[in-house]
Amino acid sequence: MKILVLAKHVPDTETVIKISGGGKTIDESDFKYMVNPCDEYAMEEAIRTQDKHKGESVVVSVGPARAQETIRKALAMGLDRGVWINTEGYSGGLDSYSVALAISKVVAEEKPDVIFAGLNTIDEGAGNVGPMVAEFAGMPSLVNISKLEWQNEGKSVRAERDVESGIVEIYEAKTPLLIAPHQNLNDPRFPSLPGIMKAKKKPIAEKKAADLITDKPKVEVRTYKLPPEKAPGKIFKGKPVEEMVTEVVKLLRSEAKVI
Q1: Where in this chain does the record put each Electron transfer flavoprotein alpha/beta-subunit N-terminal domain (predicted)?
Q2: Contacts for 238 with CB less than 8 Å, ≥ 6 apart
Q3: Full-prediction pTM beyond 0.70?
Q4: Which residue, 201, 198, 204, 203, is CA-closest to 78?
Q5: Are 46 and 2 in contact (CB under 8 A)?
Q6: DSSP 224-258
Q7: DSSP label at 23?
Q8: Which of 2, 39, 37 is nearest to 137 (CA)?
Q9: Is the peptide bond prior to 176 cis by the omega test (within 30 degrees of 0)?
């Protein structure tokens, strides 16, 4: 079985966002980066699937040189090799469509039986790229999957998806297909020391974004805006509890307008 995993290198959750360029760009000079958390569930499920059905696993990441850090972590977890789509020097614009288009060219070359993708990313939260890749590749996509059962020696799958009010949707699909796991599907492993050492020797192929993205982006960011600063909170002390409660209720009614 040929397995492909999509992974993104994203800003750390503790990153302080700063806008520059008159609202046109994000200042990334002080950013720290990490593997997109949802993608770790995709990596884990890929490894489990490979353990069961054998074959080869490939992780794909789009971005500048730092994206290779995410690829190396995936390789340390147990994936076989990586493909880095290098965006350095590319000025054509990178929306979800452009990223998916670039990845779809790798999919066409690799011809995977299954693609695992994160449910969404913590930086943009759109969750568009996985389904778009599936659409480009002409394969079905199963999203937010909480239970997975391979059938017919890995040629088809039965999947469950939890929806509102305790309802469970059950899907069946044949390979090739794309699956975006819910966090309940598995518990991602931590890379072992031997895995980290082996990852240093595993191959990462480089492809240029400019060679793969043959169309203009469909979405343009016009401006970035930070949310308005919140007024400092008020602390009540030094008075009888009854008086402080009365004052809080008054402020909730007159200022917060919640009662």
Answers
A1: 23-216
A2: none
A3: yes
A4: 198
A5: no
A6: --PPPPPPPP----SS-HHHHHHHHHHHIIIII--
A7: G
A8: 2
A9: yes
Tokens of 186: 């598995």
Q: Which residue has the tokens 């990178």?
A: 94
SS (H, E, C) 48-117: HHHHHHCCEEEEEEEECCCHHHHHHHHHHHCCCEEEEEECCCCCCCCCHHHHHHHHHHHHHHHCCCEEEE
Least confident of 69-83, 140-154, 207-221: 207-221
| Residue corresponding to tokens 């020097």 | 89
**Distance between CA atoms of residues 118 and 108, nearest Å:** 20
- Please report which helix (H) or strand (E) contains residue 196, including its range: helix 193-199
Q: Rounded CA gap, 151 and 149, in Å? A: 6
- Cβ-based burial of 198 (10 A; exposed 0-12, middle 13-18, buried ≥19): middle
Give 26-55 pLDDT, tens digit per residue.
Answer: 888 888 999 999 999 999 999 999 999 999
d(CA 224, CA 124): 13
